[in-house]
Amino acid sequence: MKKIVPVFFTILLLSVGLLSGCGEQNTSEKPVKDEEQTMKKEKLTEQDKIVQIETMLKEGLRDGADVEYDEGKKQFSVIMTNDKLKDSLNKIKEDPSDKKWPKLIKAFQHLSKQIESNLAKGYTIRLVEPDNKEQTMLTIMDGKTTYDFATQ
């Protein structure tokens, strides 16, 4: 079984740091590390892996986002719930040239590659607009950007 590498978790924490300002919240990496160890030690079914990845996404985003999985679309939707994160995304929406946006895209691309290596090809990460859950800011599949609001 392929393993999630520690870079996966670093990227998650980096993306939160980019949006919220580094070091403002004190969090423990222990729950994420526990999830990583569980995936390494156990042979998990695909459904178990999906649940594990949802949990890791939420913890990696410091519980500042909800993660929903749509089995039919094979898509993880990231919905920011933290006001600071929502404000940061709204600022990016207003000014797509914000230097945080390419860094965030790169972080989600890396995350997508990790999901691909631990589940299978064809899984999408969708970053939802903060004020409208029906709208999408970014989608990435297998490490490649398939939709970026800034280029539309």
Automatic annotation (TrEMBL):
Organism phylogeny: Bacteria, Bacillati, Bacillota, Bacilli, Bacillales
Signal peptide: 1-20
Keywords of this entry: Signal
UniProt protein name: Lipoprotein
Top-rank lineage group of the source organism: Bacteria
Keyword Signal part of the UniProt annotation: yes
